[in-house]
Amino acid sequence: MIYGIGTDICDIRRIRETLARRGERFAEKVLGPHELAVFRERSARVPARGISYLATRFSAKEAFSKAIGMGMRMPMSWRDCEIVKAASGKPEIRLHGELAIWFEAKGLKAHVSVTDETEYAAAFVVVESKD
């Protein structure tokens, strides 16, 4: 049964400008530990790839917060929600802390899709209940 659906589109230029203004502190606020390592690795090789990665993760977390119906308020937090890649390459949501406890107690499962183009990143999340 569908619990919630969320979608988000993000202007990559806005992410680039925020990163230029605030530096890596912005990435550290939005990204979890695994994501931050991937961001740094991609940024070191090709800065534009790092920015696109940050934008897709930002968009996916916004979409997830909408799908669970709470926006960016506790237990939802930027760093407790990570978008990771499965061995197959499929994006998956990995939760930590109070958010993971809340999500598991509700018996929920999330599915996420992310995409990006030159100027935009977008994400779509479906959260289903096991009932």
From TrEMBL:
<dbReference type="GO" id="GO:0000287">
    <property type="term" value="F:magnesium ion binding"/>
</dbReference>
<feature type="binding site">
    <location>
        <position position="62"/>
    </location>
    <ligand>
        <name>Mg(2+)</name>
    </ligand>
</feature>
<dbReference type="InterPro" id="IPR002582">
    <property type="entry name" value="ACPS"/>
</dbReference>
<keyword id="KW-0460">Magnesium</keyword>
<keyword id="KW-0444">Lipid biosynthesis</keyword>
<feature type="binding site">
    <location>
        <position position="8"/>
    </location>
    <ligand>
        <name>Mg(2+)</name>
    </ligand>
</feature>
<dbReference type="InterPro" id="IPR008278">
    <property type="entry name" value="4-PPantetheinyl_Trfase_dom"/>
</dbReference>
<keyword id="KW-0276">Fatty acid metabolism</keyword>
<dbReference type="InterPro" id="IPR004568">
    <property type="entry name" value="Ppantetheine-prot_Trfase_dom"/>
</dbReference>
<dbReference type="InterPro" id="IPR037143">
    <property type="entry name" value="4-PPantetheinyl_Trfase_dom_sf"/>
</dbReference>
<dbReference type="GO" id="GO:0005737">
    <property type="term" value="C:cytoplasm"/>
</dbReference>
<dbReference type="Pfam" id="PF01648">
    <property type="entry name" value="ACPS"/>
</dbReference>
<comment type="function">
    <text>Transfers the 4'-phosphopantetheine moiety from coenzyme A to a Ser of acyl-carrier-protein.</text>
</comment>
<keyword id="KW-0443">Lipid metabolism</keyword>
<comment type="similarity">
    <text>Belongs to the P-Pant transferase superfamily. AcpS family.</text>
</comment>
<keyword id="KW-0275">Fatty acid biosynthesis</keyword>
<feature type="domain" description="4'-phosphopantetheinyl transferase">
    <location>
        <begin position="4"/>
        <end position="124"/>
    </location>
</feature>
<keyword id="KW-0808">Transferase</keyword>
<dbReference type="GO" id="GO:0008897">
    <property type="term" value="F:holo-[acyl-carrier-protein] synthase activity"/>
</dbReference>
<keyword id="KW-0963">Cytoplasm</keyword>
<keyword id="KW-0479">Metal-binding</keyword>
<protein>
    <recommendedName>
        <fullName>Holo-[acyl-carrier-protein] synthase</fullName>
        <ecNumber>2.7.8.7</ecNumber>
    </recommendedName>
</protein>
<dbReference type="GO" id="GO:0006633">
    <property type="term" value="P:fatty acid biosynthetic process"/>
</dbReference>
